[in-house]
Amino acid sequence: MLSSKLQNYRCQIKNIKRTQITYKINDNSQNYLETLSLRRSYSFRSLPRTHYDLFPKTLTAGPPPSGPFHIDTRALRHEFLQLQALAHPDRHATSSKQTAEQESALINEAYKTLQNPLSRAQYLLSLRNFEIKEWEAGAADVDFELLYQVVETREAIENAAPDDKITLRKLKIENDERIKQSESVLSHEFGSENWQKAKTETIRLKYWMNIKSCLDEFETST
User: Fold this and answer.
1) Whole-angstrom distance, CA of residue 133 vs CA of residue 213
2) What pLDDT shows up at residue 170?
3) Are residues 102 and 144 in the same domain?
4) What is the pLDDT of residues 95-140, one digit of tens each?
5) What is the C-alpha to C-alpha distance for residues 66 and 97, in angstroms, rounded to an integer?
6) How confident is the model at residue 43 (pLDDT cuts 50, 70, 90)?
């Protein structure tokens, strides 16, 4: 399944010849020159089919089940910055700036989706036509134990004093562990092509990520 952006991108790009760009990269506060040679001979068949195809260095094996669900986000970001440097409109002639802008937007969308475990899981499900509908994440469709944990954690956050860093730290550690466990389950289910079970676990992860957002907001406001 191709996004509307990718479809539009595919229609406009026909052939971009070999380009070689030398640019500066800041790594551990040391500037060094790295020459990247990018061969782009895009055709309808060679255009990226999924977000994973845009990051061949980091995501060599592609999406699950051929590749792992877990992603090295540091390596992903490094490759993302390299690709964005190559696609930056200012590095292209006026006639190809529009194409460069579309490429940059596509790379940015792919990175934003893949670097977060929840959006990554939702994206992988969409590739298999297992999108999560809003009503599916409702209270009636989630097991009681999960709802109890969510309500209990939210109440603990609301009742915590602004300066009670010990309680907030404890809640954050507990929730981070839930997220970690959920990612582990998703790794197994996606790897085993159990799309329905992966969908159920993604709904659970969505609750834990919402709790994480609440904790982060509370921490920022104190």
Assistant:
1) 21
2) 93
3) no
4) 667 777 888 889 999 999 999 999 999 999 999 999 888 766 654 4
5) 35
6) very low
Write the DSSP symbol of residue 20.
Answer: E
Domain end point (choices 115, 142, 173): 115
Where do the H-state alpha helices sit in 115-143?
117-127
**Element counts in the chain: helices (H) and strands (E):** 7, 2
Element (H, E) at 160: none
Give whole-number Cα distances, 199 to 64, 138, 194, 211, in Å.
14, 14, 9, 19
Q: Which CATH number fits the domain that encloses residue 59?
A: 1.10.287.110
Domain boundary among 115, 145, 172: 115
What is the Cα–Cα distance from 140 to 138, expressed in whole angstroms?
A: 6
Q: Which domain holds residue 162?
A: 134-221
Cross-strand bridge partners of residue 37: 20
Q: Three-state DSSP class for 68?
A: coil
Please state the rounded mean pLDDT for residues 46-54.
80
Q: Are residues 143 and 216 in the same domain?
A: yes
Phi and psi torsions of 34, nearest 5°: -130, 125
Q: Which two structure tokens, joined as six digits, stand for 220?
A: 């920022």
Residue 190, classified by CB atoms within 10 Å of its CB into exposed (0-12), middle (13-18) or buried (19+), is: buried
Is 0.85 surpassed by the pTM of this model?
no
pLDDT digits (tens, 9 = 90+) for 137-160: 654 456 788 888 999 999 998 888
Q: Which of 91, 112, 111 is nearest to 16 (CA)?
A: 91
Q: Is the pLDDT of residue 9 over 80?
A: no
Does the pLDDT value for residue 59 go beyond 80?
yes
